[in-house]
Amino acid sequence: MNNKTDKPDQKEADVDFSSLYLDEHNLPKIKSASELEKATTIINTKSLIGKEAVINGWVYGIRSSGKIMFLMVRDGSADIQVVVEKSQVTEEVWEDAQSLTNESSLQVKGLIKEDKRSPFGVEMQLTAIKVIQIAPEFPIGKKEHGPDFLLDNRHLWLRSQSQRAVMQIRDEIFWSITSFLREEGFVRFDTPIFQPVSCEDTSELFEVDYFGDKTYLTQSGQLYCEAAEFALGRTYDFGPVFRAEKSKTRKHLIEFWMMDAELPFAGLDELMDFEEAMLKRIVSDCLKNKAYELSILKRDISKLETVRDKKFIRHSHKEVIELLNSKFDAKLSELDDIGAPEEAMLSELYEVPVFIYDWPAEIKAFYMPKFKRPGENIERVRAVDLVASEGAGEIMGGAEREFNYNILLDELKKRKYKYEDYAWYMDLRKYGSIPHSGFGIGLERTVRWISGVAHIRETIPFPRMLNRLYP
Ligand code: 4AD
Ligand code: MG
Question: Could you tell me which residue ranges the Aminoacyl-transfer RNA synthetases class-II family profile domain spans (predicted)?
Answer without folding.
Answer: 169-471
